[in-house]
Amino acid sequence: MTGADVRKDFPILQQEINGHPLVYLDNAATSQKPRPVLEAIQRYYEHDNANVHRGVHTLGARATEAYELAREKVARFINAPSPEQVVFTRGTTESLNMIAYGYARRVLQPGDEIVITPAEHHSNLIPWQQAARATGAQLKYLPLQPDGQIRLEDVRQAVTDRTKLVAIAHVSNVLGTIHPVSELAEIAHARGAVLVVDGAQSVPHQPTDVQALDCDFLAFSGHKMCGPTGIGVLYGKRHLLAEMEPTYFGGEMIDVVELYESTWKQPPWKFEGGTPIIAGAVGLGAAVDYLQSVGMENIQRHSQALAAYALERLAEIPEIEVYGPGPGVARGGLVTFNLRGVHAHDLSTVLDAHGVAIRAGHHCCQPLMRILGVPATARASFYLYNTEADIDALVTALTTAKEFFQHAIG
Ligand code: PLP
Questions:
Q1: Hey, whose CA ends up nearest to atom 6 of ligand 1?
Q2: How far is 173 from 182, CA to CA, in rounded Å?
Q3: 177 in contact with ligand 1, CB cutoff 6 A
Q4: Residues 226-243: tens digit of each pLDDT
Q5: Confidence at residue 100, expressed as pLDDT on a 0 to 100 scale
Q6: Which of 2, 32, 127, 263 is the most buried (most CB within 10 A)?
Q7: Per-domain boundaries in the chain
Q8: Residues of the chain whose pLDDT is less than 70?
């Protein structure tokens, strides 16, 4: 059950924007929330709210149980060997920064290399830039093919004994390219390097098995997978989380505190200093339940089918240039494009007047925009509740926009 069958679960979708039914195609930025997630958060605050791992009263025990149950659900969702390998964070950005601070800065030496691609989201680029600057390590960029893919032979050449870390998005948030994570893990591990995967655009859309992928770290955000904002996940292999230092120090992450030194709890709790994001975790747990009730294979099939349909329909407008892999190549559930001669922001404004919400801008990928030779692009991104009718509405609005901007298109 996807598309029209699940739309009723998302109250926000039942509204009009500027006199048109809302067509929400900005799911790569954030997804909408189904009723079971909204209800789980409300129920938590109405019945169980207390601080966790502290109070010895009933509510404290219930809140702790709810929080740790959410961790178990997430662990099962990504097939982590144990819930202790799931750290709750604020989102992908925070997870990646925690790896950069707690792990990379400890292991990197001058002359070491970090291999990444120029298509990374700034969240999976700037933390490594900063870690390189702080340690004397260097960034090494993999070349991109014209459609944004990387070639494994280039990876084999780039990853050397100096490489300590390979960091890559599983699915690009701009091009929709899907990177071969398990092959990358094999190449990285053969050189003793660690593979960090930015799963922000993959975990919400396809089944994820961290053991099959053999990635060392995986970062993702709850808000892109039907969960609330402010909660995300850092998965790590057990020995790496044990080795990694906490980024935040304070309440609840400690074992023993002396006047001049302290010791930490075991992972994951040593990384969760202060009052954690309890209701957020409960909401994420409900989101995982919801996604699993629909089925991750179904969601993947649905998003990819919509992306294929969008490619087909956009090809009807010759003034539209589409970026990323062409038809027939597996891609994530999004399509990035430009209308010739028109800035993506102007295009998006006209689409919004027709109730169609897309993302326009550099998508936090400025180096990639430079490679594409554009200041910005438009992006339509799909999720389980979108339908072909949404894409038809996008194309109709684009046709109107084309007439509106005829003078600029020429
Ligand atoms: N990485 C990718 C590929 C993304 O698409 C995003 C968000 O758009 C992020 C990282 C950052 O996610 P967040 O803002 O939830 O931390």
A1: 200
A2: 19
A3: no
A4: 999 999 999 999 999 999
A5: 98
A6: 127
A7: 4-32+295-409, 37-292
A8: none
